[in-house]
Amino acid sequence: MKTTASNVATVRSWFQDLYKRREFITDKSGCQMLEVLGATFLADEEVIFGEINQDYAQREIEWYKSRSLNVNDIPGGPPKIWKECADSAGLINSNYGWMIWDEANYFQYEHAKIELQVNPESRRAVMIYTRPSIWGQFNSNGMSDFICTNCVQYFIRDAKLIALVQMRSNDVIFGFKNDRVWQRHVHQKLAEDLKCEVGDMIWHVGSLHIYSRHFSLIEDNKIPT
Q: How many other C-beta atoms lie within 10 A of the C-beta of residue 211?
């Protein structure tokens, strides 16, 4: 069995090279950024640049586990980025716990678990996060929340559970590290339920990017505030 040879250190070098060559693009808001399309790598480190805020990461997991679709239910209160995504009442689409555990989204976790219990060699163990109806929901009532995770596919190979995370869009600084904490949580729980070891986590992103406000991290690896 072979998996991708690229890893987080490789990704770091991609962005360092892009920055040196000044290969900037402009996003829809007019902000400069660096971008890699179709990035695939082993998520073998917690962060690409910066460091984990362990307190917030745990609070976000607790909110996901609650399945609440209201950002005001995030323990300790929502950070600015969640408030900007939500509608005036605090409602959003992207509670990942709701997406994989709730009946309203067809019990994604349970289906993937049963599939691998019945057929450990399966290629059908997929937890689908986004949905076709997102086109009519991402901007409803002033919301701006087009789900970033497309799906996660799981394989049992050599008695290890491998996770393939497929992202529509991922910010190198905050998006990757917070999403990885969540995906590792689910990865470990599913491996425990299936009574197998935790294997590699492979990260695939349509648009992996870093915004100009964090370009300094590429130069000196400062911690973002």
A: 16
